[in-house]
Write a structure and sequence with these properties.
single chain, about 100 residues, mainly alpha, about 75% helix
């Protein structure tokens, strides 16, 4: 059995939708953060598979860009989550309503 472009697209789409469902369903801020990372990895798989299929390096350049953004997001996001936990002692997203009022 050969692995085709459709298999990679299906895997990337599956990872993206699992991440999106987890982000929309879960209320824990840390789990929502991890779901965003899962969505980014799904997109990266699609970028790399298209780059390989079309013999073009632009998809791999986009993957490097996404990985850079993900690293910066991880540093800032974890700092925010840690600060929220220290101040509120909870990670429930429904209890963080500071910006609503």
């Amino acid at each position: 059995m050969t692995i085709t472009l459709e298999h990679y697209i299906l895997l990337g789409s599956l990872l993206f939708f699992i991440g999106m469902a987890g982000f929309l369903i879960r209320r824990n801020v840390f789990l929502m953060f991890m779901c965003i990372e899962l969505m980014m990895n799904g997109v990266n798989i699609c970028f790399v598979s298209f780059a390989r299929y079309y013999h073009n390096l632009s998809g791999q350049v986009f993957v490097l860009f996404v990985m850079t953004v993900a690293a910066a997001e991880a540093a800032v996001g974890l700092a925010i989550i840690l600060t929220l936990y220290r101040n509120r002692e909870t990670l429930n997203a429904d209890e963080f309503c500071l910006m609503k009022h």
